[in-house]
């Protein structure tokens, strides 16, 4: 699982039939301090995440193991919205405080 921030959406009216009904999000990975890293990934949204939310996503074959992405040609999926994270006893991110 990888920490990321939702920075955008992708709309595609013409797509593989098995991908119908999926929402696509643009993600930017973050480090453990919440700082954005280089690069972006487009991921299917399995949980209803929104812009600026911190999320956990999986990629590769793990991305096809959610109910929404099972047997679909999906390489990345958002599977959790992060409420907070802590490193060595220090809270690094808390939803609503660091947004």
Taking all Cα atoms into account, the compactness measure Rg is 14 Å
Please provide the count of β strands: 7
Q: Structurally, how many domains make up the residues?
A: 1
CATH class: Mainly Beta
* Topology-level CATH name: OB fold (Dihydrolipoamide Acetyltransferase, E2P)
Shape verdict: elongated
* Helical content (DSSP H or I, runs of 4+): under 10%
Distance between the termini: 21 Å
Q: Biggest sheet: strands side by side, in what order?
A: 1-2-3-5-4
Largest sheet: 5 strands, mixed, barrel
Average of pLDDT: 91
The SS-based structural class is mainly beta
Task: Set out the fold topology.
Blueprint: E1 2-10, E2 23-29, E3 41-45, E4 54-59, E5 76-81, E6 84-87, E7 90-94
Parallel strand pairs: 3-5
Antiparallel strand pairs: 1-2, 1-4, 2-3, 4-5, 6-7
Write a brief caption for the model.
The protein has strands spanning 2-10, 23-29, 41-45, 54-59, 76-81, 84-87, 90-94. It is an all-beta fold and 99 residues long.
């Amino acid at each position: 699982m990888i920490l990321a921030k939702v920075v955008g959406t992708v709309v595609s009216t013409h797509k593989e039939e098995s991908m119908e009904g999926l929402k696509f999000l643009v993600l930017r990975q973050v480090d453990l301090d919440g700082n954005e890293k280089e690069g972006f990934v487009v991921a299917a949204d399995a949980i209803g995440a929104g812009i600026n939310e911190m999320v956990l996503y999986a990629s590769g074959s793990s991305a096809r193991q959610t109910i929404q992405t099972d047997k679909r040609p999906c390489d990345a999926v958002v599977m959790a919205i992060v409420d907070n994270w802590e490193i060595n006893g220090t809270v690094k991110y808390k939803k609503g405080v660091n947004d």
